[in-house]
């Protein structure tokens, strides 16, 4: 028994060091991938997301706006405690300790995958961290088992001393390794940190968003008319997000043009600012899906820039290329027609673009799906012909031009909601950018279409909210929605998949009225 107790501290230390090594490795990999969140900060975000608003307000009042670092520090303290416990547990059952680390990784994975814009590759740092936890603990356990096996009487024999030395060497090795990974992570993360810094220091001549009166329909549960930046959907193929300092950014406009134009960031923001509410949506958005958002974008009109370059006759496309190599082909006419309002955006909802949304500059073209138009981290515009190019998604079977299709969505009630007999309020959003929504209708149980009330929108490029009240008999019901564009286009009920050029079909909700 005394022999066992002798190494309790050593087992706990092993747990701590294995834990620290795993954290360090996952940190290093997130920095190498220039990810926004480490597994720990993802958990911090999840915790603050799950915390009631009143508690968050209290925390901000009490600790200032730096509640996030505090939360991260708190999580690290909890982790240190758990690592020590898991180390001790490993002596009794190595597998139980592995399971404990697995559980912690599971929490990290949940937090990572529920964060906005999560992709499976975001789990890579976590997987590497878990492998490190298990590997390091296994190495420690082997060496500690040997130490535990030394009989009390032989503690001072040379053999025992050698075993102890081996453990101490392992300890030092893991500690140095963890320290080195952390330092390397800091170095690797410097690029992103510098860009975040530059972004924070930018003073752009843009106005903050003001949601126009009348745009909100006033039904709780409808997606907010202005999508908060932190909830705005994220789609890109970039494994590591480009980190570009404004002073290093350049845009080259070339190809079938009279003269090549090269613009720096300073050149760009010196030009008149244009600002507009624009709803952006993804061609991969399913009927009823949420790959759509509405924001207040500030930037510079694209048409005059292309005019400066002077597109040549015969050109009908612009191949836009991102710093990460992704590209898209956009109809030239949508970019040179000033009325369309295509822009190089530098700010979203009154703040410089977040790195994930394309900092420092991205394109926006009202009326086109993102995959053919909304190039993030844009650095190159080549005026060309569709016949001569194949962009990233067109190579993969998606439509070449990508005009948005009219869509409407039911946000309220949630599917399966039960009501008492009486009036049921149905509400949601509808959009057809650059055309505008003229009407929204609902139909109960396949019956006649009846008009819904449509809120106003400041322009035809942003979505509208709508609501309708219906009185339903007891029983199960299905409500459908369809929209009509200002061009008279009535949303079709024909069901089409998102591939190759956007889903069609009516969104519906099933609900029950109690008798
Ligand atoms: N560089 C780059 N830009 C990109 C993409 C991409 O993969 N890489 N995806 C496009 C797609 S498919 C969409 S829907 C929008 C999404 O923009 P968001 O992530 O800011 O919402 O960006 C577009 N711009
Ligand atoms: Mo997309």
Describe this structure in words.
This protein has 515 residues and is an alpha+beta fold. The chain has three domains: 2-199, no CATH class; 229-396, Sulfite Oxidase, Chain A, domain 2; 407-514, Immunoglobulin-like. Helix content is 36%, strand content 22%. It has twelve helices and 19 strands. The chain has helices spanning 2-6, 8-32, 39-50, 53-63, 67-92, 94-114, 124-148, 158-188, 190-201, 265-270, 303-309, 332-336, and strands spanning 250-255, 261-264, 274-281, 292-301, 317-322, 327-331, 343-348, 351-352, 362-364, 378-384, 407-412, 418-420, 422-431, 437-444, 450-451, 453-454, 464-472, 475-485, 508-514. The strands form four sheets. It has a five-stranded mixed β-sheet. Strand 1 and strand 2 (261-264) form a beta hairpin. Helix 2 runs parallel beside helix 8 (158-188). The model has no long low-confidence stretch (mean pLDDT 94). The structure holds the ligand Nc1nc2c(c(=O)[nH]1)N[C@H]1C(S)=C(S)[C@@H](COP(=O)(O)O)O[C@H]1N2 and molybdenum atom. Ligand MTE binds at residues 232-238, 280, 282, 322, 324, 326, 357, 370-371, 374-377.
Produce a short descriptive summary.
This protein has 515 residues and is an alpha+beta fold. It has helices at residues 2-6, 8-32, 39-50, 53-63, 67-92, 94-114, 124-148, 158-188, 190-201, 265-270, 303-309, 332-336; strands at 250-255, 261-264, 274-281, 292-301, 317-322, 327-331, 343-348, 351-352, 362-364, 378-384, 407-412, 418-420, 422-431, 437-444, 450-451, 453-454, 464-472, 475-485, 508-514. The chain folds into 3 domains: 2-199, no CATH class; 229-396, Sulfite Oxidase, Chain A, domain 2 (Alpha-Beta Complex); 407-514, Immunoglobulin-like.
């Amino acid at each position: 028994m005394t022999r066992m107790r002798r190494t309790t501290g050593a087992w706990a230390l092993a747990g701590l060091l294995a834990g620290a090594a795993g954290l360090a490795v996952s940190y290093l990999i997130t920095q190498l991938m220039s990810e926004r969140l480490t597994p720990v900060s993802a958990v911090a975000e999840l915790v603050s997301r799950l915390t009631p608003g009143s508690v968050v307000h209290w925390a901000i009042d009490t600790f200032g706006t730096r509640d996030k670092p505090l939360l991260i520090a708190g999580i690290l303290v909890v982790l240190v405690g758990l690592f020590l416990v898991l180390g001790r547990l490993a002596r009794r059952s190595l597998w139980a300790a592995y399971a404990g680390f697995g559980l912690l990784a599971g929490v990290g994975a949940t937090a990572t995958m529920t964060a906005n814009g999560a992709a499976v590759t975001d789990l890579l740092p976590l997987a590497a961290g878990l492998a490190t936890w298990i590997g390091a603990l296994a190495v420690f356990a082997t060496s500690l088992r040997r130490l535990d096996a030394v009989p009390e009487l032989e503690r001072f024999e040379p053999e025992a001393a050698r075993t102890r030395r081996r453990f101490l060497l392992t300890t030092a090795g893991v500690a140095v390794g963890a320290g080195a990974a952390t330092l390397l992570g800091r170095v690797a993360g410097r690029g992103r940190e510098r860009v975040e810094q530059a972004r924070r220091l930018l003073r752009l001549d843009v106005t903050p968003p003001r949601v126009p009166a009348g745009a909100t329909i006033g039904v709780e549960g409808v997606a907010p008319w202005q999508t908060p930046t932190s909830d705005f959907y994220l789609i890109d193929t970039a494994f590591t997000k480009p980190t570009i300092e404004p002073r290093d950014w350049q845009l080259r406009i070339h190809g079938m043009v009279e003269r090549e134009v090269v613009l720096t960031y300073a050149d760009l923001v010196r030009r008149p600012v244009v600002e507009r509410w624009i709803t952006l949506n993804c061609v991969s958005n399913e009927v009823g899906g949420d790959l759509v958002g509405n924001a207040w974008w500030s930037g510079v009109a694209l048409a005059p820039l292309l005019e400066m370059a002077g597109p040549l006759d015969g050109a009908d496309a612009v191949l836009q290329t991102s710093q990460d190599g992704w590209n898209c082909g956009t109809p030239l006419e949508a970019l040179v027609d000033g009325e369309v309002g295509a822009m190089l955006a530098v700010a979203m909802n009154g703040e410089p673009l977040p790195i994930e949304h394309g900092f420092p500059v991205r394109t926006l073209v009202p009326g086109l799906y993102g995959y053919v138009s909304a190039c993030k981290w844009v650095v190159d515009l080549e005026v060309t012909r569709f016949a001569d190019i194949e962009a990233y998604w067109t190579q993969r079977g998606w439509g070449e031009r990508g005009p948005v299709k009219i869509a409407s969505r039911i946000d309220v009630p949630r599917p399966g909601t039960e009501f008492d007999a009486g009036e049921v309020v149905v509400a949601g959003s509808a959009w057809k950018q650059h055309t505008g929504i003229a009407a929204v209708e609902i139909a109960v149980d396949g019956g006649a279409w009846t008009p819904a009330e449509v809120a106003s929108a400041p322009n035809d490029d942003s979505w509208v909210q709508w609501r309708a009240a219906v009185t339903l008999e007891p029983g199960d019901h299905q409500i459908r929605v369809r929209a009509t564009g200002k061009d008279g286009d009535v949303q079709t009920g024909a069901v089409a998949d998102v591939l190759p050029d956007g889903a069609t079909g009516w969104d519906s909700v099933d609900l029950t009225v109690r008798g």
